[in-house]
UniProtKB/TrEMBL annotation:
The keyword Signal applies. This is DJ-1 domain, InhA-type. Residues 1-21 form the signal peptide. It comes from Penicillium roqueforti (strain FM164). It holds the Pfam family DJ-1_PfpI. The chain crosses the membrane at residues 122-141. PANTHER family: ARAC-FAMILY TRANSCRIPTIONAL REGULATOR, DJ-1_PFPI DOMAIN-CONTAINING PROTEIN. Keywords: Membrane, Signal, Transmembrane, Transmembrane helix. Residues 56-194 form the DJ-1/PfpI domain.
Amino acid sequence: MPPSPSTLLHIGILLLETTQLLDLSAIDLLYMTTPEYLTTCTPPLPQSLISMSRPCKMHYITANAANPTHTTSQLSIQPTSSLTSPAVAPGTLDLVLIPGPSPKTMPPANEYLDFVRAHFEAGVLVLAVCTAAFVVGYAGVADGRRVTAPRLLVPEMRRMFPGADWDERVRVVRDGNLWTCGGITNGHDLVIAYLRDHYPALLVNTILAAADITPRPVAYATSATEDTDTVYVVWRVIKAFSKAVVWFFSKK
């Protein structure tokens, strides 16, 4: 259903340590649907299109907003809210986006898991990108739900979180107020699915054209097994080549 243009959309972006920057970048597609963004476009967009937009307030959330948090590519971000800030208390946000953290930082601290659970139980829409599947898994909100994750991680996810129904065939899965997606740039597919569900098609198509993003099918073109086999073969070729180089120069 299209949003009310006068209603402020409150978006929480939960930043765990070493967030994947490409995962986080998907949030910009949401900002591109705001009147603040659309009124700056050149050439000017028609008012009829701008009237379909919705203002938003983005809250960048960590355990302690006084300290910067870090992403890949050596970027530091100054958060705007702590986990306990009243502005991001359960029920105050319309959605929580969780960009994928480094798997090496898993499991998250309990305070992050409590935050995710509280918002999920309050009915807030939770969007988990890439390795954020670990976060919703550890938080227990994936139990009994159909979910997805980066395809090469799905076997491990099934082992670690057997209470969830892991589907490696698709880029995006929606089950109630939990939405999950595959690896990294599938975060764009996830946000596009949200936009398709909440904004008029004309506005969404305009945003995607401006960003030069071609929507992809929800289902992957190849099976996870085929992709895994391809990665394995490439790895074996590289390994064999490196051994051949060492052997060649040892004969010199």
